[in-house]
Specification:
Layout lengths: L13 H31 L6 H30 L6 H34 L1 H4 L4 H17 L11 E4 L4 E4 L4 H33 L6 H37 L7 H14 L3 H8 L1 H22 L12 H22 L1
Antiparallel strand pairs: 1-2
Helix pairs in contact: 1-2, 1-8, 1-9, 1-10, 2-3, 2-5, 3-5, 3-6, 3-7, 6-7, 7-8, 7-9, 9-10
Membrane topology: Multi-pass membrane protein
Keywords: Cell membrane, G-protein coupled receptor, Membrane, Receptor, Transducer, Transmembrane, Transmembrane helix
InterPro entries: GPCR_Rhodpsn, GPCR_Rhodpsn_7TM
Length: about 350
């Protein structure tokens, strides 16, 4: 099927497509910029170099790929009323949407195991190789989803659905969809839930035992990190579950097309909020991002402002020294003239 045939014939109304495209475009740009900013500040700051922030960077990479590929294609389809690529790109987008979501879910599951070991089995955590576990997480979370692309039917598993203005997996690949749901959604979700239950039981039992201030501060920080990755998991699920439930119920696609636009936009917007979570819940990342904005503001102020209109409180050190030298030179010249 050529690209010219991927045009909507019974799709959503234009107003719903344009509103959806506008919302998705704004959140898409903010999501990409936010993830890139998080990656930059973590990469440039040596004090942010640790296992937790390595996991954050890995999740940012997933988000950037997902936003740049899948969300961009869906946004473009709502703008034009047609799928922007041929069938190969359409099918690859279908697979990568699920695979990147599965990779992110496995990230959160293995990070939950890491949090469980840190909080509940801290003595054991001191003995294991941190570098080894980090490499295992980064490799496992990508290899497992990619295994689902290793099949002879790849390239012929999806079809274009004009009502949704996107490609979906054909109905005769139900077993494949079930395996994807089990291994990329259910298992990592179950692992995370079990780990978090164990963590919060341990915290509840230890809250009275840790009376020393140092122990309380350590536990508080570890729980904050645990909550941060828990919210990332919830964002993934909150974005995907409504769409997945509707698709599972509406097998004949009898629901209104505009309703599908709404749940697709909801899914896409949820994908863009991870940088906000990192910034709000991680004090180190938040401080580093604020420093970037403060530095940029100082650069702009120094470039645009003229020294003669600056007062001493708003000057940079360099500008203040320049003005003071000019003042001293002027006073010296006046003394020489009077003498």
């Amino acid at each position: 099927m050529s690209n010219s045939t991927l045009v909507t014939s019974a799709g959503p109304s234009r107003i719903s497509m344009y509103i959806g495209a506008g919302i998705m475009l704004v959140t898409l740009v903010l999501g990409i910029v936010g993830n890139i900013l998080i990656m930059i500040v973590i990469s440039l700051r040596k004090d942010l170099t640790n296992i937790i922030h390595t996991f954050v960077v890995s999740l940012c990479i997933n988000d950037i790929i997902n936003l740049s590929l899948n969300n961009t294609l869906v946004t473009s389809s709502y703008m034009t009323g047609r799928w922007p690529t041929g069938m190969l790109g359409c099918e690859m987008s279908t697979h990568f949407t699920v695979l990147l979501m599965g990779s992110s879910l496995w990230h959160t599951a293995l990070i939950a195991i890491h949090r469980l070991i840190v909080v509940v089995f801290n003595n054991f955590y001191k003995k294991i190789s941190k570098k080894g576990y980090t490499i295992f997480v980064l490799v496992f979370c990508r290899v497992v989803p990619l295994l689902f692309l290793c099949q002879p039917s790849l390239g012929h598993m999806a079809y274009y659905e004009p009502k949704l203005i996107r490609c979906i997996v054909k109905k005769n690949y139900g077993p494949f969809t079930l395996l994807v749901s089990i291994f990329l959604m259910m298992i990592p979700s179950l692992i995370l839930i079990v780990c978090y239950i164990a963590i919060f039981i341990k915290v509840h039992q230890s809250s009275q035992a840790f009376r020393a201030h140092r122990h309380k501060e350590w536990l508080k920080r570890e729980i904050q990190i645990t909550k941060m990755f828990g919210i990332v998991f919830l964002l993934i699920m909150v974005g995907y579950i409504p769409y997945g439930i509707v698709r599972a119920i509406d097998k004949t696609l009898s629901y209104d097309s505009d309703f599908y636009v709404f749940i697709t936009v909801f899914f896409a917007v949820a994908n863009c909020f991870n940088p906000v979570v990192y910034g709000v819940m991680d004090r180190q990342i938040r401080s580093a991002c604020l420093e970037v904005f403060r530095w940029r503001r100082l650069v702009i102020d120094d470039t645009q402002a003229s020294p003669e209109f600056l007062n001493k409180e708003t000057m940079t050190i360099h500008t203040r020294m320049s003005v003071e030298i000019d003042d001293c030179t002027a006073r010296s010249n006046m003394i020489q003239l009077e003498s």
